[in-house]
Amino acid sequence: MRIKTYAICIYIIFIYWISLHIPHMSTLFFPTLGAFSLLFISRPFEKAQLRKIAIGAILSSFIGSLFVYWSSGVLSLLLTLVIVIFFINKFKWNAPPILSVALIPFFTHTSLIWVAPVSVAGSLLGLLLTLSAAAYLEKRCAALAFFLRRTTEAKSDSAL
């Protein structure tokens, strides 16, 4: 669990650095990325569930982008919320950050409709790859610790 925690922290810092220093990558970092990170390490998800949640997040950011592109008013916000909540209930995506990701286009104000969904997809793909690598490393370290652990107890020759 510790390796995953450190890996996530390094990954989020890296994404934040990229969003600050590389032009046109400012939407790559979003606060909900931290919520997804904590969600993914705090619950025992299967890989299929993780993919489903990531696809739900990408779809919801696309819905938000579509409605912002159409109009950035209150009605488009309401429609985005209603549709995304419907999808969360229908497909049983047990991940509240999905609704937050749908709101990203409402405060980033990009002129291109595809920027937010591609940014969410890239960030979550990187997060899932980081967690997979950390899980592999944890498994390897656990196996190494098992072999390095002393299994025999040496008793002293001296008696009291």
Structural notes for this entry:
The mean pLDDT is 86. It is built from 7 helices and no strands. The protein is mainly α. The chain has helices spanning 2-21, 32-42, 47-70, 74-90, 97-102, 104-108, 115-148. Helix 1 packs antiparallel against helix 2 (32-42) and helix 3 (47-70) packs antiparallel against helix 7. The relative contact order is 0.16. The termini are far apart.
Ordered list of secondary-structure elements with their pairings:
Layout: H1 2-21, H2 32-42, H3 47-70, H4 74-90, H5 97-102, H6 104-108, H7 115-148
Helix pairs in contact: 1-2, 1-7, 2-7, 3-4, 3-7
Order of helices and strands: HHHHHHH
Mean pLDDT: 86
Low-pLDDT runs of 5+ residues are: none
Kindly state the number of beta strands: 0
Radius of gyration, in Å, reads 21 Å
Helical amount: over 70%
**Structural class designation:** mainly alpha
Helical element count? 7
Task: Tell me the major beta sheet.
Answer: none
Beta content? under 5%
* Termini separation: 44 Å
Shape by Cα distribution: flat
Short description:
The protein has 160 residues and is mostly helical. The protein is 73% helix and 0% strand.
Structural descriptors:
160 residues; 0% strand; flat; mainly alpha
